[in-house]
Each structure stands twice: as C-alpha cells, then as structure tokens.
Design a protein that fits this description.
Elements lengths: L31 E7 L3 E7 L11 H7 L3 E9 L2 E7 L19 H18 L3 E7 L3 E4 L6 H12 L15 H11 L5 E6 L8 H13 L3 E8 L1 H5 L8 E4 L6 E4 L5 H21 L3 E6 L4 H15 L1
Parallel strand pairs: 4-5, 4-7, 7-8, 8-11
Antiparallel strand pairs: 1-3, 2-3, 5-6, 9-10
Helix pairs in contact: 2-3, 4-5
C-alpha cells in the first residue's frame, strides 16, 4: 500500500501567522524580530551620534531638547528558522491499527500531519524549516531551509514513517540524548517544535529535563506537543475484563484486569504530566496537550489562536 501525505488534508489556518515570541536570527526580511539593529522597520532605542556618521538618522527633536546628538536605532524584522522534531519510537505507532488514517490516526500519523501543516504555514511566511527524527538517538537531522526542494525532502522523510509496521520494530526512546543533539546542531535562536508522547524511561526524567533546558540555554524557543491517546494511555479506559498489554518498545507482556489498577494508574500518570508541565513552565517552554482524539487541526488551531493573543 502506498503511504503518502494527503496535501488536501493539511490545514491552512487562514490568515493566522506563527510569530516568534523572542528575537530570531534570520537571513532574509520576514515577520520576526531580529537581535541585529539596522535602519528598517520599528524604533528600538537611541544611541549617541559618532562623528563622521551619516546625519540621516539623527533625532533632531531630541537634539533640540538636550543639545546632544542621538541616532535612532531600529529593530529589523527577519525570518524564522523552525526545527520540527518528531519522536519515531515504536510507542508513537499506538493505537496499533492495521491501516491508520487521517480520521483514525495513531500518534505518529497525528504528529506527521501536524508537522506538515506547520511546514506549509512556515513556507507561506517565507520561513526556513528543518526536520529532526529520533528514537534512541537522533536518527535524521536536516538544517532549516526555505526552498521548495527542501520542503519536498521533508515530506519524503515524513512519508517514510507512515507505514504501521514501524510499530513492530521495537524502537525504544531516549529523548534526552536526541534533544541534546538537536540543541547543538540547530542554529541559535530557532523555534524548536517537538512532537512526542514523552514515554521515556521514568528513571531518566532528570536527564530529559536537562535536555529541554539545554534547548533554552542555546536561546531556542521551544514548543512541546505532548501527543497521547488520552482515553487509554492516561485514563486507562478499557472493558472490565482481563487484557494482554504489550509494550511496543520492548515487547514485554503484562496480563491483568485494568479495572484493578485504574485508580493508581491515573494518579501516577497525572503526577507525571503535572511534573512535565511544571518543568516546562520553569523553562519557559510552551506545553501543548495533544490528544489525538481531538484531531490535529483542532489542537493546532487552538494553540495558534491562543499564541496569537499572547503576542
């Protein structure tokens, strides 16, 4: 069966723009604030005039009040570099459907369509986009570019992830190591958008949070889409009868009646999510709960509208 992204299904989001919350370092004129000053769009500050400079940007009104010559400095607008980071470990292929689809996605299909829609949005803004894929390590990493050829490469990389047999390959997760590598390989002051179910080893939680902090240390703006099938993975909504549960990453099998552990399970998953949300808040990382049952369009649109109101 041919697995490919249905471009007619990609959300265009009308006139919504994805603007950077912080200054970015770009290379062509765009929509976002730059840390480099020039004489372009919006006034930033005054500085003392240096003899020999052009007098074109002297603030003569200020000179009349202070008898000192100051030059106006402006903030340039620039384009954004966006790095899309997708967890391709086997747990992302849950729910394990024979033919996952746009209407009945697994977590990875949800992430692929959300990432592809952001790619289209960025391209409309003339922003540069790169793609990183990880499981135990960083499997693939392309630097952000804004060309059509590069966009086609990203689509090709995403489509190779779509066949459901990827969930049978027991690809385990080590998000911490991969995110450290993304932080180092991505141009500073980029927007890093992560799609992951965050099902890493619980004993490595501190390492994962250190990796997220590394992204912020390198001046990246970070958005984390926590992708999950909420009914089963968080609420443990199963029929009251014995079930056979298989860990998609290790192959470990557990037989039990979920009703017997449901309350304890919900307490543990709720605690883990609250800890993740708290750490994201501490590091100024946007945390977005992405329940695949809502559909990627609703999740993305809700986030973009909320973000536009905060800028």
């Amino acid at each position: 069966m041919d697995y490919s992204i249905d471009h007619n299904r990609l959300s265009r989001f009308g006139s919504i723009e994805f603007l950077a919350k912080q200054v970015v370092e770009g290379f062509i004129t765009g929509l976002h604030k730059s840390p480099f000053h020039g004489f372009s769009v919006e006034f930033a500050e005054h500085r003392l005039y240096n003899p020999g400079e052009s007098i074109k940007y002297i603030d003569w009104k200020l000179y009349g009040r202070t008898d000192k010559m100051f030059v106006k400095r402006f903030e340039e607008e620039t384009n954004l570099r966006c790095q899309l980071v997708i967890d391709q470990s086997s747990s992302m292929y849950f729910p394990n459907r024979k033919i996952p689809s746009f209407t009945e996605p697994n977590k990875l299909i949800f992430s692929i369509y959300a990432a592809a829609s952001l790619l289209e949005l960025m391209r409309r803004q003339r922003d540069a986009v790169g793609l990183s894929l990880f499981d135990k390590t960083l499997v693939a990493h392309t630097r952000a570019r804004s060309t059509m050829v590069h966009a086609k490469l990203i689509y090709s990389m995403l489509e190779k992830l779509m066949p459901p047999d990827g969930g049978m390959q027991k690809r385990q997760t080590s998000a911490a190591e991969a995110i450290h590598q993304v932080a180092e390989r991505t141009h500073q002051r980029s927007l890093v958008v992560i799609f992951s179910d965050m099902m890493d080893n619980a004993s490595q939680a501190d390492e994962l949070f250190a990796a997220l902090r590394h992204l912020r240390y390198n001046k990246h703006e970070v958005v984390l889409f926590h992708v999950l099938e909420k009914n089963t993975e968080e609420q443990l909504e199963f029929e009251n009868r014995p079930h056979r549960f298989v860990d998609m990453e290790s192959g470990m099998v557990v037989k039990l009646n979920p009703a017997l552990i449901k309350e304890q399970y919900q307490i543990k998953t709720s605690s883990a999510k609250k800890d993740l949300m708290m750490r994201c808040g501490q590091y100024q990382i946007d945390y977005v709960e992405a329940d695949i049952n809502l559909g990627y369009q609703q999740v993305l649109l809700s986030y973009l509208l909320k973000r536009s109101k905060l800028l």
